[in-house]
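Lecture notes, part 5. Sequence design as translation. It can be helpful to think of inverse folding as translation between two languages: the language of shapes and the language of residues. The source text, in structure tokens, appears below.
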């Protein structure tokens, strides 16, 4: 397998075994034919891109029944309200011909702020159920995967964009050349691309290997983002760390010559070199920590079980699919997973087949311990579950280290 950007041979640095689809929640009738693929990661020192060796076809992951709805977190709603505000106050939208495009617009969590102001916008969203929610709020959506072909069509129908936004979707798109070309084509010369994704630097420092699953074909660093967009004449203008998804980075890029880069760009690039994000060795060492993390989590849960403790998990996240299947944690160790998404309730987790129930179930019969599968929403989960803690319930986490939280 070769690097999707540079074409050089990828060195396999991490093997997470055979895995099902991260968001492939299913019913017992589907267990037998469940799809698995080998989840392995590679790194290319020339492009600096950390990537999956093999990724399932996009249509298998993003379709009518795609189960992740952005609006399930109040904090994420606030995050996108602030993000929209930032775009507005920075004056990125032109007065006479404003046009903003969002890739992976999901349920409209971000574009709703532009639709409400009557600003011309377009969401690109191939998954049906989430797009339905956006359209119901009056958001314009094209139900397709982004491509240069679609970029040309949008350009012909709407004109060029002032701003292209993409949150937690750039890292999902395997044909990175095609993606960058389409963006450069659709963007005005004065336009900006602003995108955010889980950050490789945080995954390495927090051993949050659960960020690695089928949808995340890449985990970006500023070093790799710089290389990707250099191929289409674009450069980094700003980089802003975000707390979302357990540690993300927001990248702002423009066509070469559009503006002067913030000093933060240089700062973060040198921090990445100091962290070794350009060296294969860093990822080999990471793989060792992942192996230890998986074994420790299983051991901790097994020990608690031997002591007759009840254990549930909070959040039927796509991320935790990697953990359960890698660490071989099934319904023998975790009684159930609770989740607020009606779409997921009554189904079973991919591969491990742990039943998914409502949050009410958790509140009505709280376990002794709850694994923080949605650890990136820890603040919200603690706030919603004071009663669980008052009863002596404790949270278990795997990141940055496997432990019981006090
Ligand atoms: N932006 C939202 C949703 C992220 S989930 C948020 O940050 O919460 C990723 C979304 O991208 C899914 O809704 C998925 O259907 C969509 N997606 C996947 N591949 C895409 C592509 N090639 N073009 C546009 N959207 C895509
Ligand atoms: P995410 O980590 O990919 O954002 O997924 C979070 C999952 O956790 C999602 O399925 C919704 C669920 N969730 C709850 O069940 N309760 C909550 O309070 C929050 C914030 C999320």
């Amino acid at each position: 397998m070769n690097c999707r950007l540079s074409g050089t041979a990828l060195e396999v640095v991490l093997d997470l075994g055979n895995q099902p689809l991260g968001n492939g929640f299913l019913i017992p009738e589907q267990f037998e034919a469940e799809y698995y693929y080998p989840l392995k990661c590679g790194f290319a020192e020339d492009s600096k891109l950390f990537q999956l060796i093999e990724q399932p076809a996009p249509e298998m992951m993003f379709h009518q029944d795609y189960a992740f709805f952005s609006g399930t977190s109040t904090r994420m709603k606030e995050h996108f309200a602030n993000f929209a505000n930032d775009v507005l106050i920075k004056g990125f939208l032109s007065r006479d011909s404003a046009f903003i495009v969002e890739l992976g617009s999901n349920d409209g969590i971000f574009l709703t702020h532009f639709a409400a102001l009557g600003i011309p916008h377009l969401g690109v969203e191939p998954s049906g159920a989430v797009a339905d929610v956006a359209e119901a709020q009056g958001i314009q959506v094209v139900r397709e995967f982004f491509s240069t072909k679609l970029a040309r069509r949008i350009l012909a129908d709407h004109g060029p964009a002032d701003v292209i936004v993409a949150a937690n979707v750039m890292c999902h798109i395997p044909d990175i050349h095609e993606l960058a070309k389409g963006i450069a084509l659709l963007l005005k010369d004065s336009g900006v691309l602003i995108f955010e994704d889980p950050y490789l630097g945080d995954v390495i420092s927090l051993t949050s290997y659960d960020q690695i699953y089928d949808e995340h074909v890449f985990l970006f660093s500023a070093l790799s983002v710089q290389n990707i967009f250099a191929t289409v004449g674009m450069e980094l203008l700003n980089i802003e760390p975000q707390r979302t998804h357990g540690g993300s980075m927001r990248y702002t890029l423009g066509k070469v010559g559009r503006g002067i880069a913030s000093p933060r760009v240089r700062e973060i690039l040198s921090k990445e070199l100091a962290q070794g994000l350009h060296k294969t060795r860093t990822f080999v060492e990471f793989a060792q920590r992942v192996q230890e993390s998986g074994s420790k989590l299983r051991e901790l849960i097994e020990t608690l079980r031997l002591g007759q403790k009840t254990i549930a998990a909070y959040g039927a996240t796509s991320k935790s699919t990697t953990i359960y299947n890698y660490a071989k944690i099934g319904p023998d160790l975790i009684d159930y997973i609770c989740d607020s998404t009606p779409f997921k309730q009554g189904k079973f987790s991919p591969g491990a087949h742990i039943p998914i129930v409502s949050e009410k179930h958790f509140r009505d019969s709280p376990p002794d311990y709850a694994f923080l599968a949605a650890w990136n929403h820890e603040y919200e989960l603690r706030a919603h579950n004071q009663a669980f803690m008052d009863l002596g319930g404790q949270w278990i986490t795997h990141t940055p280290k496997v432990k019981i939280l006090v």
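The translated text above is only one of many valid answers, since several sequences can fold into similar shapes. The mean pLDDT is 97.
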